[in-house]
Amino acid sequence: MSKHLKECPFCAAKDACVVGETDWFYVACYTCHADGGGAETKEGAAIKWNTRAGENA
Ligand SMILES: [Zn+2]
């Protein structure tokens, strides 16, 4: 059910969770309150978060 989320790219906490409503979701870090960007599905939000976490910008 829950999709694996990478650790937070900002604070490195493994404290991220998908939040949102029926047609709008995003991944938020409960430690530093970063968010990964909105998407229409939980999967999309998770992908956005994971993609961002994988970047080394
Ligand atoms: Zn964080």
Q: Short description, anyone?
A:
It contains 1 helix and 3 strands, in the order E-E-E-H. The protein is of the alpha+beta class.
Explain what the structure shows:
The longest helix has 13 residues, at 42-54. A hairpin with a 5-residue loop joins strand 2 (24-29) and strand 3 (35-39). The relative contact order is 0.26. This protein is an alpha+beta fold and 57 residues long. The chain has 1 helix and 3 strands; from the N terminus they run βββα. Strands 1-2-3 form a 3-stranded antiparallel sheet, with helices on one face. The chain has one domain. Bound molecules: zinc ion.
In order across it, which strands form the biggest sheet? 1-2-3
Indicate the mean pLDDT: 89
Largest sheet: 3 strands, antiparallel
Overall body shape: globular
Q: If you compute it from the alpha carbons, what radius of gyration comes out, rounded to the nearest whole angstrom?
A: 10 Å
Counted by DSSP, the helix tally is: 1
Strand content: 25-35%
Helix fraction?
Answer: 10-25%
Low-confidence stretches: none
Q: How many discrete domains?
A: 1
Describe the protein's topology.
Layout: E1 16-21, E2 24-29, E3 35-39, H1 42-54
Antiparallel strand pairs: 1-2, 2-3
List the defining traits of the structure above.
57 residues, alpha+beta, three-stranded antiparallel β-sheet, 1 helix, 30% strand, binds zinc ion
